[in-house]
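Consider the following assembly input.
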Amino acid sequence: MFKRSLLLGIVSGILAGVASVVYAKVYNDAIGTDFSAVITPLKIMLACIAAGLLAGLIHYGLMKAIQHRATLVFNLLFTVASFATIVLPFAKKLPLDIEFPELFPGLVVPMHFFPVLGWLTLYPLFFRSELIHKHKI
Amino acid sequence: MKKLSFILATLHLSGVMFAYTFTTEWKIAPKYSIAFDGGEVSGIFRTFSGKIFFDGNDLAGSRFDVTIDVNSINTGNGLQNRHAKEDDWFDAAKFPAITFVSKKIAKTGNTFQVTGDLTMHGIKKEISFPFSFQGQKFSGKFSVNRNDFKIGKPGGEVDDVISITVDVPVVK
């Protein structure tokens, strides 16, 4: 169970990282901004994988603590936490040589939802047997 | 008598023209910095323009007439930038420029002291501050009380006294 939670966290983190990097490329090309001094593809990947790993650990902890409702509680927590963190890009103070800081949240806010999307998308692949078992009950 | 007045007036006008003509005019070079620090909020103004006539040996003929574009404010945060331009702060729509026009420049040791009119938020106040001119760069640091210009409400997260640092490289 621990391995599966952790693996799901890492894989969904990588998926979220790839999606975020692609989104950043599309956003910068479309809007004509350059925030590479603040966020690089490496930083994006590391942040997404770290978020996935943390999610895996919390998920495992909840599975141990409240077995039956763990997934429901965890998914709710992960979504609410992702939503709550969108205040951070709005409060972020960028270096003064970066133009159009008002466009920074538009780049980063969607990225805050990619880890939870990755997790929810891949969850059935990693915990399929559990879902089938629950369905039968 | 009329002739004498005419001659004196002509001489005076010639003197003024001589002073303005022969005091070096400097053009503002691109890498200038107009920075402000008000505690929780700090930043720069990106757009600065104007006329600078300066000669350390001809202070009477030296003068500054410079303008800062309020809309070019950058605090590094989009929300703060927008808030700063709103009517309770700079009211950039109504008062799009900050201007400084010098009235007197004096030498004080190795530096200079300029006195002039600073106009912000539609309010004109006389200020005086020291500056240096070395290596074709003007540098100065001074403070203004934003309440004197009715910018924002007194107190709060932004300091009442804002520190301003000016570094303006120039070329002939």
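The interface with chain B takes residues 90-96, 98-105 of chain A (CB under 8 Å). Ask yourself how this observation constrains the way the partners meet.
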